[in-house]
Amino acid sequence: MKARVHVTLKNGVLDPQGKAVHHALQGLGFDGVNDVRQGKFIELELDGTDAAKAEAEVKEMCEKLLANTVIEDYSIELA
Amino acid sequence: MKSAVILFPGINRENDAIAALEQATGTKPIVVWHGETELPKTDIIMVPGGFSYGDYLRCGAMAAKSPIMRAVADRAKAGVTILGVCNGFQILTEAGLLPGALMRNASLKFICKNTHLKIENADTRFTNQYKVGEVVDYPVAHHDGNFFADSETLDRLEGEGRVILRYCDADGVVDPKTNLNGSQRNIAGIINEAGNVLGMMPHPENAIDPLHGGTDGRNLFKSLVEAAS
Predict the structure, then answer these.
(1) What domains sit in chain B, N to C, each tagged with a CATH number?
(2) Residues of B in contact with A16 (CB under 8 A)
(3) How confident is the model at residue A14 (pLDDT cuts 50, 70, 90)?
(4) Which of B14, B34, B59, B86 is catalytic?
(5) InterPro entries, from UniProt (chain A) (predicted)?
(6) Which chain A residue's Cα is nearest to B100?
(7) Tens of pLDDT along B106-122?
(8) Sign of the C-alpha dihedral, residues B133, B137, A13, B100?
(9) Average pLDDT, stretch B197-218?
(10) Is B158 designated active site?
């Protein structure tokens, strides 16, 4: 089973890297971009077939290591 | 007086930490590898600067989960003096021993230079040899020193006198222009609730010898010794 984790900065946390990317896109002529937020994508290859169990475990991984919940939110997608 | 320096893979300022602690305490610190699970009994523990685990995932995230950090957390609870500098500050926040997080500098640049800092609280075991409002000069060398905490946490830190150092200019002016890296409220160093754990981005251990260009950092280490003796 695969788990895909997206880690993004919380709303209200300034994202200087996203801002720099936004600025660079504007420099390339992409004028229609209103905002850019940069995050991380983490793909996990898991043992087992129990989706509920896997989700609970990945949630714990996010809380303990994959995300810093002081500044980041995360979302989990199983496939 | 005994001290320990915790060593993680990718740390590169341990010798500076060792030199500063030896100068202040008169005894060479014990170096403890991150894979250990027990700490020798010491009065002071220092988590030095560098790039533990190559800053992978987030600065300090992996080091914070090292076996030795359980022992460090136990000592923190027991009231032992713990100083985290630069990557050490990042590691202590990731380990939950200090609030907040260190994000990418607002300029997105690695900043390596000397900076002025205002001593905001001289009534701590880290700053008792300084005066409140004193301006000191320490080097900084970091890419991720932009301190963030929610406003409730920031208010609590301020209200409890736990903001110890702020970025300023030579005259002690603290404002957005003198904010080195975009940190909330110019914060450069904070202590925990019990007052025995300090995390700071600047490097006092690199301001202890005239050859460094200044010795303003000596009093920080003298303070630790004063408090522990």
Answers:
(1) 3-228 (3.40.50.880)
(2) 103-108, 146, 182
(3) confident
(4) B86
(5) PurS (IPR003850), PurS-like_sf (IPR036604)
(6) A70
(7) 999 999 999 999 999 99
(8) negative
(9) 97
(10) no
Which chain B residue's Cα is nearest to A17? B108
- Indicate yes or no: CB of A66 within 8 angstroms of CB of B57: yes
User: What's the gap in Å between the CA of B101 and the closest CA on chain A?
Assistant: 7
CA distance B116 to chain A (A): 24
pLDDT in tens, B159-171: 999 999 999 999 9
DSSP per residue, A23-68: HHHHHTT-TT------EEEEEEE-S-S-HHHHHHHHHHHIIIII--
- For residue B18, give the 3-state DSSP assignment: helix
State yes or no: is B120 an active-site residue.
no
Domain extent, residue A57, equals 2-78
Reduce the secondary structure of B180-229 to three states and give it as a string.
CCCCHHHEEEEECCCCCEEEECCCHHHCCEHHHCECCCHHHHHHHHHHHC
Query: CATH number for the domain including A35?
Result: 3.30.1280.10
Q: What's the mean pLDDT in A39-57?
A: 95
Residue B229 has what pLDDT? 81
In tens, the pLDDT along B131-162 reads 999 999 999 999 999 999 999 999 999 999 99
Active-site residue flag, B116: no
Please give the ipTM for the structure prediction.
0.87
* Total tally of structural domains belonging to chain A: 1
- Per DSSP bridges, beta strands A72-78 and B101-103 are unpaired
Residues of chain A contacting B156 with CB distance shorter than 8 Å? none
In this prediction, residue A79 carries a pLDDT of 87
What is the chain A residue with the closest CA to B94? Answer: A68
- Considering CB atoms only, which of B58, B101, B104 is closest to A16? B104
The whole-number pLDDT of residue B183 equals 97
pTM of structure: 0.95
